[in-house]
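Write out the 3D structure for:
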Amino acid sequence: MQGTQRFKLVVFDLDGTLTKERSIWEYIHKRLGKWYGFAVEYQNQFLAGKISYDEFCERDAEVWKGMTVEEMMKIVKTVPFHPGTDELISYLKQRGLKLSMVSSGLSVLSDWVHQKFGFDYSVSNDLLHENGVLSGKVRIQVHYDKKAEWVRRILQKYDVKPEEAIAIGDSRGDIDMFRMAGFSVAFNSSCPDLDQMANICIQSQNLADIIPKLPF
């Protein structure tokens, strides 16, 4: 019973944590045949420090200009989730924890996931559109390495202390988030630094494998 009282909220990363795809941006490009020899170059330029994160996102969004939101959603809804997602989320809800999500991906995905699994709070980056048609612009709310400010807002919103929060993520962009939580889980992590920070590291194809490792 002690553990139930201690933890009140979970904050998830989305891409690569709940979904099998590490990036919804990349996933959409690949589905449209716009990744190899094209959008992958924007990623390389960003990783090499040649363009800013905002420029990187703006160039990605520009590729999809003219698509309808409906067309985009058809692609988004084909993203595969890790097995065990339902089970883990149901378990956390039964324990009475609030569910939140901070993603540097896209709200076309996070809004759908929010609704699908019954999250309490989620935030990510918005593809802008006019009359149901993508304008090629993006509203950046979550920088990949600046998730802590959003975690802070969520904790304040639900009156939860950092030590009462659990963070679950998979990449370098989640380090900031892990620092804000009392307990952290690295799931199929691609980042040794994240592994070092995490309370537990799990390599698995099934998210439900996290359940027996939780401190309840």
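The chain is about 40% helix and 20% strand.
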